[in-house]
Amino acid sequence: MTMSKTVGVLGGMGPAATAEYFRRLVAATPAETDQEHLHVIIDNDPRVPDRTNAILHGGPSPVDALVAMARRLEMAGSDLLVMPCNTGHVYLEEIRAAVSIPVLDMVRETVRTIERSSVGLLATDGTIQSGLYQQACEPSGIRIVVPNPSDQRSIVGAIEQIKRGVDPGRLGKGIRAIVRRIADDGAEFVIAGCTEISLISGDTMPVPWIDALDCLVEATLREAYPSVRMEGDKEVE
Description:
Layout: E1 7-11, H1 15-28, E2 40-44, H2 51-57, H3 63-75, E3 80-82, H4 92-98, H5 106-111, E4 118-122, H6 125-130, H7 132-137, E5 143-145, H8 149-163, H9 172-184, E6 189-192, E7 209-211, H10 212-224, E8 229-231, E9 234-236
Parallel strand pairs: 1-2, 1-3, 4-5, 4-6, 6-7
Antiparallel strand pairs: 8-9
């Protein structure tokens, strides 16, 4: 394995999603020894104000907390930053302006993988109503299909339950039913656009499942090993 960059993680939004990002990153790294894995610095700060509350209801802004976290990670030696929280990407440019190292864009990385014309989106109200994914998809002519209001309330409820510690596996049946209705509305596949939703298995969904958390992991490996091109679970110089 060649020289790698130190990855800083803006975490705590929520803690289980941060832990899952790190677990997937370790699992996806083509390392044969401890020493070949990435140096990862995680700042798991759950005190960051609620992003959806700030976006939709004028609640406390998370910007100061996110900027402070990014600066701490930079000072600790990070070469690049990632944020395993979709809704937090509403504030991506403020974070980027506060540091001198790259900050990956999970939303853009996810949209790069889309090869269809119509995609469903499972996400927080803040992510949907801010237009994060809609704006990223517009240049490619990709249509975003969102759940109906009743299903969206169920999705938000599932996110809240996972944050409270409910086993994500217990929620899969309800999410599958919502995905089926989104598919009936024309979605050719569905984005898991909230890192709590990422904790629900997409293996048995009625249409293909694109997980934004997996896309962030792939982008992290690509950027952290700049001289290595990742192909499946192999590395190519």
